[in-house]
Amino acid sequence: MIKKIDASQLKVGMYIHDLSCDWMSHPFVRNRFKLSSDTEIEKIIQAGIHDVYIDTDRGLDVSDAPTQNEVETALQQEMLEIVSRADPVIIRVSAAEESQRAKQIKNQAASLVRNVMQDVRLGKAIQLEQVEPVVTNITESILRNSGALIGLMRIKNKDDYTFLHSVSVCTLLVAFCRSVGMNEEQTRQAGLGGLLHDTGKALVPDDILNKPGRLTDQEFDVIRRHPKDGFDILLKTPGVGEVPLDITLHHHERVDGSGYPDKQAGEGISTLAKMAAIVDVYDAITADRCYHKGMPATDALRKLLEWSKHHFEPRLVQAFMRCVGIYPVGTLVLLKSGRLGVVMEQNDGNLVSPKVKIFFSSKSNTYIPPQEIDLSKPMGKGGADKIVSHENPTKWGIDPNRFLTT
């Protein structure tokens, strides 16, 4: 049985099932292992990990600890309550109408980030006048229909992950800023910070950046230098503002002081750096990498909510959920009718009843003609269909992303 315990309850002989943090926050080669020494326990605590999941079938038990299912059920209910308080989503054009423009913007932005990284490796300066128009295009797409570009950013080529991750963070951060009412200039500066936040990774050797496995302690230290390296690079860029510098340097800080490079904590971290940290982790843990499979977006949001007890600002995590919905665009969902579908677009003021493209019957285990339905509207005399659960695409052998491009 999988249970959640406080790190202070750890004992030699327990089997770690999950360290309950994003992969860049812990220094262990493995995610799952049996504790063999007090040194390992101390290493977990020193890494800023406050709670873990243990497998009681493979190690010592804690009798009164909650099960993983109990924890996830409570978090899911909390998520539903959070998004029920969301303001209406402003959609100026349909996702279908924005889709083509969004594809062009995604490709343009990824190409730009690739060129920026190449220039940095060659010792060339970043040309801010080339970056700013791309951020403007992303912002305008978000204003027309945020779901179109956000949905497309779920589709990443593993080889281009570093570039596409930067575009994703920019896109999500711009949408996040708009949803919490930040003004145009703040949003523009945040977008620049999102697009350039990983510039320092240009100085990380490719064999470390793309290593198909856990990093050694030495490799981990090299990766952890990228915020400061990126900050130093941006300092040499004429016209760069304080916000992009702050986001680049501090997007790995955590509110409990366990982050890096400066171990800032609480109010010592700016709001925009806290927001960047949330979207950075969200995009990282939902993406397929050479060393781990990305988790479904809804699971990632639930993890962010769980980690907000220590690592993230709770009110900002809740605001991010209200921004993207607990079933973000691209999420595979199971409906009450037994049909499977992909979330295509959020609905104004109803984030638990989005527009969904159905394409598969779980009852007959067969594909059905694709059809887009609006879950916020009544569906015949039997009442509207509704989402029963989000599903892991791997379980069904389905790639929901292909429906976002058709």
Strand content: 5-15%
Uncertain regions spanning at least 5 consecutive residues: none
Strand-and-helix sequence, N→C?
A: EEEHEHHHHHHHHHHHHEEEEEH
Going by helix content, strand content and strand pairing, the class is: alpha+beta
CATH topology of the largest domain: Hypothetical protein af1432
Number of structural units classed as domains: 3
Overall 3D form: globular
Mean pLDDT: 90
Rg (C-alpha, Å): 21 Å
CATH classification, class level of the largest domain: Mainly Alpha
Report the sheet with the most strands, covering strand number, pairing sense and barrel closure: 5 strands, antiparallel
| Oligomeric composition of the shown chains | single chain
How many beta-strand segments?
A: 9
- Name the CATH superfamily classification of the largest domain: Hypothetical protein af1432
Number of helices: 14
Q: Which CATH architecture of the largest domain?
A: Orthogonal Bundle
Overall helicity: 40-55%
Pfam family, one: HD_5
GO molecular function: phosphoric diester hydrolase activity
Domain HD-GYP: 140-336
Protein name: HD-GYP domain-containing protein (C-di-GMP phosphodiesterase class II)
